[in-house]
């Protein structure tokens, strides 16, 4: 009898062990860790620290909300953790930081602000199947051929077309000058805008490059007056653009429309309001308040960080929600599975509405906004994905 009892006992233990094993292999949350790490690499020091911190804040706010809601993957409660590092807006540092984040076990990254940094870091993330969601706009980022490179906003090609098309459509415009500040970014946008103007049968009569510190524009202003230029398409920095407009005032040539890019869509540039006929700017980073859910996000951001949105926090916030949606969809924290889900889904983005990437990693719903400086404030005039 004793032997029979022992065999039954053993049988029950074996059955329980088998059921436990099946549960571990096929049950809720199978293979899902207790904590999932999301990496952030942005400039958190130096002259671009305010923008980098703004992008980090967007991720932080989203993660805090999701954790508070009780984030689950395949039925298992999971804690999301942000691992943030400073890329210093430097390509070499960005590459080193990328390896650190990979080694830290992040499932994906929201990185980077600067195109040069994103491009340098991309091979590191690609080798580890880590999705890299960047706000960088240089087209080369998604031309590297990596599955992991994903962009949050429209690229420079669309912005250049927007600048050219908008400038070409200005009433009374006949003579165009195109000017840049000598960087790869500025030259690329300026050349793209000039190309679009030519496609629309507009004459670019003055084409000039300066370095990024030039503020002496008296001679150039005189040249524009002599040429009777009435539209200046500019990639100058805001302080340079202000110096140019002051020079135009000095020579008495103010019946001019300035059309710029992100580099002039700043609070500093608002000081130039009224110097010339009109000042406009283009940007692929649309203001949060332009979206239906934007005011609510702006209020939440202000309440949490005690400061206004500085740049693109709403895009990094939305990217985090889309990323966590991919984690849920893949029922996994496996980098490759999460990347595949990101590539295939049309993700819910609480502020901007939807994010989806094409085969190259470009944002399918990216758009460029046209803003006019009116009474010291930037006001949206129009926005489109087709320029």
Tell me what the structure shows.
This protein is of the alpha/beta class. It folds into two domains: 189 residues, Response regulator (Rossmann fold, 3-Layer(aba) Sandwich); 143 residues, Rossmann fold. 43% of the residues lie in helices and 20% in strands. The chain is built from eleven helices and 16 strands. The protein starts with a helix and ends with a strand. The N terminus is likely disordered.
Describe the SSE topology.
Blueprint: H1 2-26, E1 35-42, H2 49-69, E2 72-73, E3 76-77, E4 79-86, H3 91-104, E5 108-111, H4 115-127, E6 131-134, E7 149-151, H5 156-168, E8 176-180, H6 184-199, E9 204-209, H7 218-227, E10 231-234, H8 238-250, E11 257-260, E12 278-283, H9 294-305, H10 313-330, H11 335-344, E13 347-349, E14 353-355, E15 368-374, E16 377-384
Parallel strand pairs: 1-4, 1-5, 5-6, 6-7, 8-9, 8-10, 10-11, 11-12
Antiparallel strand pairs: 2-3, 12-15, 13-14, 15-16
Question: Nutshell version of this structure?
Answer:
The chain has 11 helices and 16 strands. With 387 residues, the chain is of the alpha/beta class.
């Amino acid at each position: 009898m004793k032997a029979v009892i022992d065999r039954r006992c053993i049988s029950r233990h074996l059955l329980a062990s088998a059921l436990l094993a099946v549960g571990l292999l096929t049950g809720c949350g199978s293979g899902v860790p207790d904590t999932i790490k999301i990496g952030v690499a942005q400039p958190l020091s130096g002259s671009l620290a305010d923008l980098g911190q703004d992008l980090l804040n967007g991720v932080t706010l989203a993660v805090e909300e999701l954790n508070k809601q009780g984030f689950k993957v395949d039925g298992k409660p999971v804690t999301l953790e942000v691992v943030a590092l400073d890329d210093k807006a430097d390509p070499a540092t960005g590459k080193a930081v990328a390896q650190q984040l990979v080694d830290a076990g992040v499932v994906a990254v929201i990185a980077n602000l600067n195109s040069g940094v994103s491009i340098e870091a991309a091979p590191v993330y690609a080798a580890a199947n880590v999705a890299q969601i960047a706000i960088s706009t240089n087209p080369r980022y998604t031309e590297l051929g990596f599955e992991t490179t994903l962009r949050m906003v429209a690229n420079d090609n669309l912005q250049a077309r927007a600048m050219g098309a908008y400038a070409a459509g200005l009433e009374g415009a006949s003579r165009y000058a195109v000017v840049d500040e000598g960087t790869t970014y500025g030259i690329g946008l300026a050349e793209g805008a000039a190309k679009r103007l030519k496609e629309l049968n507009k004459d670019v009569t003055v084409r000039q490059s300066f370095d990024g510190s030039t503020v002496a524009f008296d001679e150039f202003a005189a040249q524009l007056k002599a040429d009777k230029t009435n539209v200046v398409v500019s990639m100058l920095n805001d302080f340079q653009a202000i110096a140019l407009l002051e020079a135009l005032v000095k020579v008495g040539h103010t019946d001019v429309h300035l059309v710029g890019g992100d580099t002039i869509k700043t609070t500093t540039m608002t000081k130039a309001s009224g110097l010339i006929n009109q000042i406009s700017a283009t940007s692929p980073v649309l203001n949060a308040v332009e979206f239906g859910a934007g005011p609510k996000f702006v209020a939440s951001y202000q309440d949490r960080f005690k400061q206004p949105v500085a740049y693109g926090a709403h895009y990094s916030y939305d990217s985090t929600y889309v990323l966590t949606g991919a984690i849920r969809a893949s029922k996994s924290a496996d980098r490759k599975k999460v990347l595949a889900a990101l590539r295939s889904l049309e993700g819910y983005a609480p502020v901007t509405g939807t994010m989806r990437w094409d085969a190259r990693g470009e944002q399918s719903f990216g758009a460029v906004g046209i803003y006019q400086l009116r009474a010291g404030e930037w006001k949206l005039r129009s926005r489109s994905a087709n320029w």
